[in-house]
Amino acid sequence: MQPANPTSGRINLDPDKAEHGLAQLVLTVIELLRQIVERHAMRRVEGGTLSDEQVEDLGEALMNLEEKMEELKEIFGLDAEDLNIDLGPLGSLL
């Protein structure tokens, strides 16, 4: 969405840019959740509460999820910096 043009009083909506912005927002939320799950998984692995098979399965699942995220970022023309939202005084999201 672009700023309103003061002479026309209308907002210029570009559907292609709206789709890109929505994809960026959705992938940012997914990346945030992926990182949270990864950190939780690492705590469980380090805590020794998982069997060797569970650790292997968890590692494979996390790698697959990361690969899928890379694929989606490529499809929408985004990189890691595009998903790192600046939260002002709170710092960066990711």
Automatic annotation (TrEMBL):
Q: Print the keywords alphabetically.
A: Gas vesicle
Does the record carry Protein transport as a key word?
no
Q: What is this protein called?
A: Gas vesicle protein K
- A Pfam family assignment: GvpK
GO biological process annotations for this chain's record?
Answer: gas vesicle organization
- Similarity-based family: Belongs to the gas vesicle GvpK family.
Intracellular or extracellular location(s): Gas vesicle
Signal peptide start-end: none
Do the record's keywords include Plastid?
no
- GO cellular component annotations, sorted alphabetically? gas vesicle
> Transmembrane region positions?
none
